# Entry
Amino acid sequence: MLRPDLDDISVMALSPGYFETENTDDMISDWVALLDTVFGGYTIDRVGYFVNSLHWRSDRVKLIQKDGRLVAQSVTWHEVSLWPRSGHVLWVAVLPEHQRKGIGSYLLNKTLHHFVADFGFLPCETALS
# Structure
């Protein structure tokens, strides 16, 4: 898809009862449990490897809670030396019982707007890997 701008993509709102929360060090076990439930095979060591090997910024982790429980998250990163104006989405995970409620779309929407704020916008072909 070739898109000249993101003007027609408005910022979304979360479904009622869900809210974005700050990433804190004491949430790591909940975060790993969420990844393991959704994708399988995730441990604190595996997540730690990614966190320590990427150009990590805690503001790139978006966490969604409902009723005090972590139910969804996304992680984005960028490698400035290789791709100075390119952002990458590493994980988008939503617990099965909270899927189909627009949470994943909300997280990806926030990511697009975050990337535009950080890098500006250059039209390009999109790629999935």
Observations:
- Strands lie at 18-21, 61-66, 69-77, 88-94.
